[in-house]
Structure formats: C-alpha cells, structure tokens
Amino acid sequence: MRLLVVEDEVRLARALREGLQADGFAVDVAHTGPAGLDLARSGEYDAVVLDVMLPGLSGYRVVESLRAEGNWVPILLLSAKDGEYDQADGLDVGADDYLTKPFSYVVLVARLRALLRRGVRARPVVLAAGDLRLDPASRRVSRGGAEVTLTGREFALLEYLLRHLDRVVSKTEILDHVWDAAEDIDPNTVEVYIGYLRRKVDAPFGRRSLETVRGAGYRLAADGG
Ligand code: CA
Description:
By secondary structure, the protein is α/β, with parallel strands linked by helices. It has helices spanning 10-22, 33-41, 59-68, 87-92, 105-118, 152-162, 171-178, 188-202, and strands at residues 2-6, 26-30, 47-51, 75-80, 97-101, 127-129, 132-135, 140-143, 146-148, 210-213, 217-220. The chain is built from eight helices and eleven strands. The chain has a five-stranded parallel sheet with strand order 2-1-3-4-5. The chain has a four-stranded antiparallel sheet with strand order 6-7-8-9, covered by helices on one side. A hairpin with a 2-residue loop joins strand 6 and strand 7 (132-135). 30% of the residues are buried. The mean pLDDT is 88.
C-alpha cells in the first residue's frame, strides 16, 4: 500500500513517514498544498494523509480539487483543534475521515487501515428537483443547465432541502443540519438564507420551487417549481 503524507511540519512528517514505513507502507511526503495536490493527482496512492493548514493551498482546497476532478482516493484529514475551520467542513468537501491534532499514531494507523479496507468509495449521486441540480461531488449547482453560484451555506441549505424533497422541514431541523451546533443562530437566519436561495435558483428562472409553509417551515417542490 502506497501512502501520501502532506504535512508542512517537517518533524511530524518525518515521524509519520518513519512510523508508516515501519508498519509496512510505502510513503511519499509533500510539504505544501500544491506539491501534495500534484502528487495526489498521479493516482499512485491508496490513501492520502492530509494536513488542513498547509502553505500554498489548504487541505480543504486540495480535497475539493481532487474530488472535482473525479479523484476518489481515500483521504484522512489532520485538523488542528480550534482551527480556522471545523472538522465537519472537511467531510463536507469530500474527505473520508479526520483526526484532530494532537493525535495518537496508533489511532491514525487504525483509521488508515479502516479507510484502506473500505477502498475508493462511490461518487455521490447528483441530487435533482426537476431541472434544478446539485452535484455534491463537484459542488456545482445548475438550473436548466445554467450554472448557479452559491455560497457554502447556501449550498448546504439547498443540499439539505434536496435530500428532503416535497417534505416540510422546520427551521429548527434546518438549523440543526446546516449550521454548526456550537453556533448560536437566530432561527430567522434560516428565512434570510431561503431568501438568498430564491434569488439565485428561482427568481432568475421565473420559478417558485421554495415554498414557505406558514408556521411549519419550508418545502422544496420535487418538480423544481
Ligand atoms: Ca500545518
């Protein structure tokens, strides 16, 4: 099994390489985001251990680029505690697992072996409501073939609604699934974001797919409005 370790902390990278080699893996190391992305693109690795905070290109951007290119190599992210991003973001962009630093080497190897057993996972299916389409893999949204640009939060909200087509979902449900549990968010924020979405996926196309159900929540029409 050949592994790629992308880690800018030279001592940690060396320790990982030596440990993993002793455990029978072939290991290559990159110290920057762009170098890691180049190597990962070669398709020669069975799994990638990827630090989040990297010079040149963050681990998240590396994952996003690989997934957008259809590269599904298993990726384990290493994120710093209280980092700039939370761990869920890493899974959102398409990583398979994550560990928070500092981590135990034994746990890292156990998680890696689990990832390798699972192998390359299937590409997530494209979600659709009529001609409104969202591709979780490439993180692209389109309406009638026209590309629609959404922010990360708008994307997450639309994805949640698409996974619950034709069902009324409450503001609380949406807050629980689209916002970080640790954030103290005013439920009216949901309404604001529904408004943003309408302006991007409905209004320009003369459609009304996002329905407000008074006192209950919101419903995305399965036919796309
Ligand atoms: Ca780092």
